[in-house]
């Protein structure tokens, strides 16, 4: 384990976001007992808020390589982060903080770099030394990902990125990483996470995916009126999806007729 414990000291005034979430009233201390911690809960329960604050507390690096420290989008996260105390067994800066929106921006930017380099090469003479920086850019991207990201689907590019970027002994904070993935590819992501765990890495994941929630021996935490341990079969998303798949037409009938 890298990160062992998260403690919360609420501010004196806690009537406005990000200090007015129901679970914060009783939350003071959380021990991370497994290398994979899963945050579950409904939309608006504060899963992403907590994950953002953890990331801001130790200035985690975004997947793009940027810092959270000056990003105005994380102003609320930094306010909550100041109320958190993180206890480490081994403090690391290896790893990254991932959000689905950041991934889309990152892939677009990477594909833009590829296209720009290719365009410049087409305009330069084959023996021109000016080609070297663009060739180096394409070589570095290909060496890291081993595939042509500009030719992959969104989900394929996502898995290629994680396959290339997961490292041993690193902490990864993932906010809804299932977003671009089919159920089959979510299983592929689970396999990648497991390989990283076997090499000493740790994950804290906010998700709505029953597939990711099923990671063996994951520490499952439900955010609602409290922040408390839960069991897989007790998670609302799991129970709802199971009932829906058992009889989808019953749900559709009542929804559309109502």
From TrEMBL:
Keyword annotations from UniProtKB, A to Z: ATP-binding, Cell membrane, Hydrolase, Ion transport, Iron, Iron transport, Membrane, Nucleotide-binding, Transport
Pfam families hit by this protein: ABC_tran (PF00005)
Compartments (UniProt record): Cell membrane
Main location class: membrane
Membrane topology: Peripheral membrane protein
AAA+ ATPase domain: residues covered: 33-226
Enzyme class: hydrolase
Cellular component per GO, a single term: plasma membrane
Any one GO MF annotation of this record: ATP binding
GO biological process terms, semicolon-separated: iron ion transport
Gene3D superfamilies: P-loop containing nucleotide triphosphate hydrolases
Entry EC number(s): 3.6.3.-
InterPro entries found in the cross-reference section: AAA+_ATPase, ABC_transporter-like_ATP-bd, P-loop_NTPase, Siderophore_ABC-ATPase
Name of the protein: AAA family ATPase
Species the sequence originates in: Lacticaseibacillus paracasei (Lactobacillus paracasei)
Taxonomic classification: Bacteria, Bacillati, Bacillota, Bacilli, Lactobacillales
């Amino acid at each position: 384990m890298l990160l062992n414990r998260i403690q919360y000291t609420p501010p004196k005034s806690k009537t406005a976001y990000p200090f007015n979430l129901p679970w914060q009233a009783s939350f003071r201390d959380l021990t991370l007992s497994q290398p994979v911690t899963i945050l579950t809960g409904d939309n608006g329960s504060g899963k992403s808020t907590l994950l953002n604050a953890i990331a801001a507390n130790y200035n985690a690096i975004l997947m793009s390589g940027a810092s959270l420290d000056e990003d105005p989008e994380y102003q609320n996260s930094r306010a909550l982060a100041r109320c958190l105390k993180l206890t480490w067994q081994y403090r690391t800066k290896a790893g990254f903080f991932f959000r689905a929106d950041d991934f889309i921006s990152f892939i677009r930017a990477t594909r833009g770099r590829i296209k720009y380099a290719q365009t410049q090469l087409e305009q330069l003479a084959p023996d021109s030394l000016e080609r070297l920086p663009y060739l180096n850019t394409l070589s570095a991207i290909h060496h890291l990902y081993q595939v042509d990201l500009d030719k992959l689907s969104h989900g394929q590019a996502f898995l290629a990125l994680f396959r290339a970027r997961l490292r041993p002994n690193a902490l990864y904070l993932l906010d809804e990483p299932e977003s671009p993935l089919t159920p089959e590819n979510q299983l592929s992501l689970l396999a990648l996470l497991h390989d990283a765990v076997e090499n000493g890495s740790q994950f804290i994941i906010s998700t709505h995916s029953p597939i990711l929630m099923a990671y063996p021996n994951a520490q499952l935490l439900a955010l609602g009126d409290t922040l408390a341990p839960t069991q897989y079969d007790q998670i609302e998303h799991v129970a709802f999806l199971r009932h829906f798949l058992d009889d989808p037409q019953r749900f559709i009938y009542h929804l559309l007729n109502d």
